[in-house]
Every structure is written in C-alpha cells, then in structure tokens.
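S1.2 Input.
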Amino acid sequence: MSILTHILGGREKQVQASEVAAHIQQLVPRVKSGTLRFWGIWFGRPHDNCHAIVRAEADGDCLTLHFNDEETLQIWHPTGCQIDEQQFVIPSATRVLWRWYWYGRPHAPGNLMSYDFVHSGAEVAFQSTFPYSHRRSPASMSQQFRFIDRQPNKSLQATRDGRSSSASRFTSFGPACLSSGR
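S1.3 Output.
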C-alpha cells in the first residue's frame, strides 16, 4: 500500500488511505459538506445541492466516501488532502469515481449513474453513464476537487483556476469540489 500525503492541522505528514478515512470518520457529521465539482466539472448546477458525508472507509489506496443519499465517491491515490469542518480539498488523485442514483427515480441498479475521471500524465479522461452529462473535457489538473459553499458568498470572487480572491474560500477536494452553506 502506498503512502498518501495528507495535511492535518496545518502540517504535512505521510499517512495511509485508512488514516485519511479514520480522520474523516472522526469529523462526521461536522466534516465539510456541499456541492461537488470535479476538475472544473460541476455535479449539477453550481450550488444546486448539498452532499453530506456519512461514512468514510479505505481499501488499499482507495478512499471511499459515502454520502447522505446513497451516493459514493471513490478516490484512488489522493494526495495533499486538507480536510476539516471548514474545508474539504483533495488536490490530486489518479482516479475519481462518483456514483449516484438518478434523482427522482427509484434506487435500482438501472438508475445508478456515474462520473469517472482518470488522471494519466497531464490528461484527465472523463466518462459518464448519465445521458445528460457534460460534453466537454475536464479542466487542467490545477482545478481541484472541492466542496463549494451552497449559498454563494457575494464577497467571494473565484478565478478560473479555482482560487478565491477574498477572505472566504472554496473548499476543495482535489479533482473534485464540494461546497456548502455551513
């Protein structure tokens, strides 16, 4: 099992995926929640919904997060994690797989949709089983996965590369993005 870089309490240290999962699990239900964005691709419309982590676990180098509406997010080889009650940022991963049940339909196998992002070199490949998924490619690797505040903060001015220009800040989840009104 490889070592993952994880930032806890402002200082960097090397940890296993299981330690990242344990850290998140200790924060539940106070861990940052919100809207998802993966390498510049929003899940739904910006600030449209709020996803809350209910459980975290790891299997080898894969971190699995379970959300409040039976959604799951798997992150392979996440690095540089910044996770607490105020932020949820994972700047890099080799693969991100987001699975959800088509909203408004029964939770049945035929309604299980996915966004699948695979990072290889400077490229991020994107595939989706959702018929109305984005037709564009993910942004560059500089776009992180993050939680974004559900209620937009009028004082927050975000730049194209995901940086914020005010004291408020987006919470990032490396290749993906999650935001909340918390």
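S1.4 Remarks. The chain has a mean pLDDT of 74.
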